[in-house]
Amino acid sequence: MDLLRSQERFSEREAMVRRFEAVRKATEDLCLPLTHEDFVISVTDDTSPPKWHLAHTTWFFENFVLKKIDPQYEPFRNEFHFLFNSYYKSLGYYLPKVKRGVLSRPTVHEVQEYRRAITKEVMMEVMRLSDEKFKEIKECLELGIQHEQQHQELLLMDIKRNFYENPIRPRYHPDHSHGPYESFDVKWHNLASGLAKIGVDRNTHEFAFDNEKDLHNQWIESCMLSSHLVTNDEFLSFIEDGGYDNPLLWLSDGWDVKEREKWSAPLYWERDGQNWWSFTLGGMMPLDLAAPVVHVSFYEAMAFAHWKGCRLPTEFEWEVAARSEPSECTFLEDGYFEPEPSRDDHELYSQIHGSVWEWTQSAYLPYPRYEKFQHGLAEYNEKFMCNQFVLRGGSSITPRSHYRVTYRNFYYPHMRWQYSGIRLAKDLA
């Protein structure tokens, strides 16, 4: 029996190492369309160069896995600790985010060598650990894999933003055709008043981020959620009705940001005479009116909801609704990289899993009995629980294997380079 349990543990370890290797390769595959010059640029304070993403995810495994296995571990290169730490103040100084675009050195080739070396070393070291030592580092290794998948999405977000600022508007990948799709009728589905279980039990054996725990009761007032995401066509009506010029629709902070940034449409939209175009990872394309609107800020989502006489759902209402919908739509593995129009393959809520991250009106705060990650990872989520709002549902560039219905994404309300969209809610009397 002891031998059987040992074999089972080894099989679990081998499967984890294989998944680690596959996720590392998937990140590198996302970089295959890039030229050497593409790796080093960063055009805004929010974005990072692709080269930095490759290095930072490697730094994560070096610092939180290899150093945990061997406290005497010698770093691959000492200066990498400063250059590729993201925000872990407890680990020492780090390069400010706005300076990541100055890193012409180390070269792309050196970063790729760094990745290969650390990937190989992690696989070798984990496979030769004792069972007890593997138990100690298993949580950090799993978090590192999930962290890398988060950066796969960030990588594509940043590539898209970088390419958009290039006057020739290069394509990351060939465009994909889809449709035509028939128009759909929006339906409103009721959520009954009552207590709902929200989040993840702290004793689960499945992975979840610390911000998804603990499972707790949340009161839901009776309300309705829309069956469909807001489309480009609907948002275009908001624009044509003067939505960006009506201060009565906007939060005060949102109005100030809109005026300062001169917003008049979602990010990546451009008007050419009577026609609207949108920049995608496949280049400039005619605006697909049937597709979900994407790249809107929380402020724009709130203004649109007010214009429609609706509101945004809370993250708790959203989770209750999402648990009732089995269908999924577009994720990263589908290879389209942009949200597609809704298809008639859902039961209640179209595209609630995948396609676009959906803004909620919920502030990003800890759940009851929240406990932050240990093992030097206390800064992973807790320090960001202020002045941000929760988004739910995943997007067309979220890895499907990384997604869960309880997943809580979060951004500042002015941000819109992430794949963020809108699902509306209404109160019931």
Protein model, in words:
The protein has 429 residues and is α+β, with helices and mostly antiparallel strands. It has two domains: 2-164, Four Helix Bundle (Hemerythrin (Met), subunit A) (Up-down Bundle), CATH 1.20.120; 188-427, paralog of FGE (formylglycine-generating enzyme) (Alpha-Beta Complex). The protein has helices spanning 2-30, 50-69, 78-84, 108-127, 131-164, 232-240, 252-261, 298-307, 315-323; strands spanning 188-191, 194-198, 216-220, 223-226, 269-272, 275-280, 283-286, 357-363, 389-392, 409-411, 420-421, 425-427. The strands form four sheets. A four-stranded mixed sheet has the order 10-9-8-11. A hairpin with a 2-residue loop joins strand 5 (269-272) and strand 6 (275-280). The chain is globular, with a radius of gyration of 22 Å.
Per-chain topology:
Layout: H1 2-30, H2 50-69, H3 78-84, H4 108-127, H5 131-164, E1 188-191, E2 194-198, E3 216-220, E4 223-226, H6 232-240, H7 252-261, E5 269-272, E6 275-280, E7 283-286, H8 298-307, H9 315-323, E8 357-363, E9 389-392, E10 409-411, E11 420-421, E12 425-427
Parallel strand pairs: 8-11
Antiparallel strand pairs: 1-4, 2-3, 4-12, 5-6, 6-7, 8-9, 9-10
Helix pairs in contact: 1-4, 1-5, 2-3, 2-4, 2-5
